Structure formats: structure tokens, C-alpha cells
Amino acid sequence: MEKDEKVRRNRAKTTQRIVEALEEVIAERGLEGVGVNRVAEKANVSKVLIYRYFGGMEGLMEYYVKMGKLFPVFNPAVLDQIRPLHDSDVARIWYRQVIQTYRYFRTFKAAREVLKASVIENDSIAETTARAQDEEMTRLVEQLSFVQGADTQAISAVILGAMNYLTIMAQNDRTMISIDLRSEEGWKRVESAVKTIYIALNRMASQAKEVNLELQSAQLPMAQW
């Protein structure tokens, strides 16, 4: 048993080292510059080990996207706390999560590069990364919808798709409708708009007869995240 535990710990440490090396390579060279040889060299491991652990570069990228670092994973206990207590809480849950998620993307270069996977064509690593990213965003939307009778997937596709694009534009030193996406002031305006949109959607959902909001059944404290 002790031997098995030692093997497990060693594998966990090696996996972490490979993931950290992957992030460094992505930050230095972008997603299109990622390769097994570069990651293995950066992590100081044999590339055979990457194939053994992950099946190759595509498997490593899928693991990285789904490990919960880019998009949070909420367990049932946390979801019970996040679940809105009042009708008006739904907007706050959503705009906080969106704003926090994309602040992380803007401050972490490797994460920003991962967002670009959706706009890279004819690249198997980018396709795998984009698919894993979409699965994680879908999971997050489903976990936090707390709404029955409204198309939360389509609404989220519009808002999150826009945030993806604006984040990529910011990295390329672009503007959008004369908003400087390189500045904090510009992003404060974007975040204020996101907040306004979700508050308006929340108000519409609360007033719509065909829409039901899933509220907390007990007076649990709202989680702060």
C-alpha cells in the first residue's frame, strides 16, 4: 500500500510539473506553438511520459482545460449555497461569475491564449482545446442557471461569446466601439454593461409567467466567490 501511495504522489507531482510547463510554453509561444517536445523539455521529463499520462498533446490540453483552473467546478454543497435566496439574486450570481472569470483570463496570459482556440482553424490541438472549453462552459452554465423556462444556453452563448471575443481583442491591443480594451477604465465599462444586462434579464425572468426561478429552500448564507 505504501508503494502504491508513493507512486500516486509521484505521478501527481509529475502531472503538476507538466501542467506548469504547459502554461509556460503557451504563455511564451501561444497555443499554436505548443508541442510535446517543448513541454517535455520545459518540464524536464521524457515525452514518452506525456503520451503515457495523457495520450499526447491533445489529451494534455483537454486535461488542462477540464482540471477546474479556467472554469470553476462547484460541488453540490457549494451549489446549494450559491443558489439564489430571492428572485433578484440570480443576476448577481451570474454577473459576478462572468466578471470574475474574465478578469482571470485577462490577467493570465496562458488562459487568454486558450480562449483563442475557438478562432484557430485546421489545428487538431486547437480543435480539442475548443471542444473541451465549450464542454466546460456548458457545464458551468447548466450548474448556475437556476432558471426553468428560459433559454439560458443561448443567452450565455451571446454574453460569454462576446466576452471571449473582447478578451482576445484586448490581448491584440484593439478597441471596440471606441472602448479601449487595454485600459482598466474600458473594462469597467464592459463589466458595468454585463451587470446591467443580467439585472434586466433577471427582472424579465421574475415577471414572466412561463419562467420559474430555483430558489434556496432554506435560509443558507450566500457563498462569496
Q: Which spans of ≥5 residues are poorly predicted at pLDDT below 50?
A: none
Largest sheet: 2 strands, antiparallel
Please give the alpha-carbon distance between the first and last residues: 38 Å
CA radius of gyration:
20 Å
Query: Which class best fits the helix and strand makeup?
Result: mainly alpha
Number of domains: 2
Helix content: 55-70%
What is the residue-mean pLDDT, rounded to a whole number? 90
How many beta strands in the DSSP annotation? 4
Strand order of the largest sheet: 1-4
Task: Estimate what percentage of residues fall within beta strands.
Answer: under 5%
Strand/helix succession: HHHHHHHHEHEEHE
CA-based shape: globular
Helix count, DSSP H or I runs of 4 or more residues: 10
Report on this structure.
With 225 residues, the chain is mainly alpha-helical. The protein has ten helices and four strands. The chain is globular and about 60 Å long.
Please sum up the structure shown.
With 225 residues, the chain is mainly α. Helix content is 68%, strand content 4%. It has helices at 2-29, 36-43, 47-54, 57-66, 76-82, 89-107, 109-115, 124-144, 152-171, 184-207, and strands at residues 147-148, 175-176, 179-180, 212-213.
